Amino acid sequence: MAGPFTLPGSAEDAAAKAKRTATVRDARTQGRVRPKSRVYGVGAARLCAMAGPFTLPGSAEDAAAKAKRTATVRVKEWVEARLPLEHVQTRECVVDVSEVQCGDPNCAPIDTVVRIIYGAGCGTVFGIPCEVHEVEEGDIDSQMPPDEIIQQWAAGEQVVWPPEPETPEPGPVPTDALRFDVGTKVACRIGPGPEGWATGTVVAHWYRGESWPTGQYAPYQIQLDRTDMGSGLIFAPYDEDTCIKAA
User: Fold this and answer.
1) What pTM does this model have?
2) Nearest alpha carbon to residue 169 among 217, 136, 204, 126
3) Residue 26 has what pLDDT?
4) Which of 188, 126, 198 is nearest to 163 (CA)?
5) pLDDT band for position 43 (50/70/90)?
6) Residue 234 to residue 247: CA distance in whole angstroms
7) pLDDT at 30
8) For residue 199, what are the CA distances in angstroms to 11, 127, 218, 235?
9) Contact criterion met (CB below 8 Å) for 94 and 117
């Protein structure tokens, strides 16, 4: 019973293992087996696509927010530099700069709004029709009040700046014939799509806004039937079916 002992079949197993190892070694030598340390195909493409430089989530938004804050501070400093130093240092005057969205389709989508605030409700608010980073120093110069107005605000005098514009002369009222008489029920375009019509009654011809340029009139003023739009008084700028039509 003296050893070494060999379990049944172990000689055959050892021979088979040696044969497999030799086969793999020969195949690698002949280029038929890929070394495990290399990456091919889709995996390699993914690694290439992941090559840096890397950007942390939200960093683009953070950079935009930082740029906006920097521009806001710059505009505020321009305004403060045009005010008496003692008013700014003692906080007798507060300057605020912000962006607001403008809902008027005829103006810029975003305005930069500057508020100059003194005590007793004195001061002014003016807007510049662009984003804050687009504001130039000359834009501030064109909007700032003169020194005498600033001193009046500091003294508590509520002086309006800029002054209210003079009411333009109305000019001659048009004499063109209109399709709908006063008292006629009509439908007016107040929004997009099929649901953008509202019914009402013509209450005046050749309506004119108080501050409109000389000679500008709207063919109709209409009292809407709906009650969710303030006074419900609107005007139709054109006497055309795309704007106003029979109800």
Assistant:
1) 0.49
2) 217
3) 56
4) 126
5) very low
6) 16
7) 52
8) 101, 36, 18, 13
9) yes
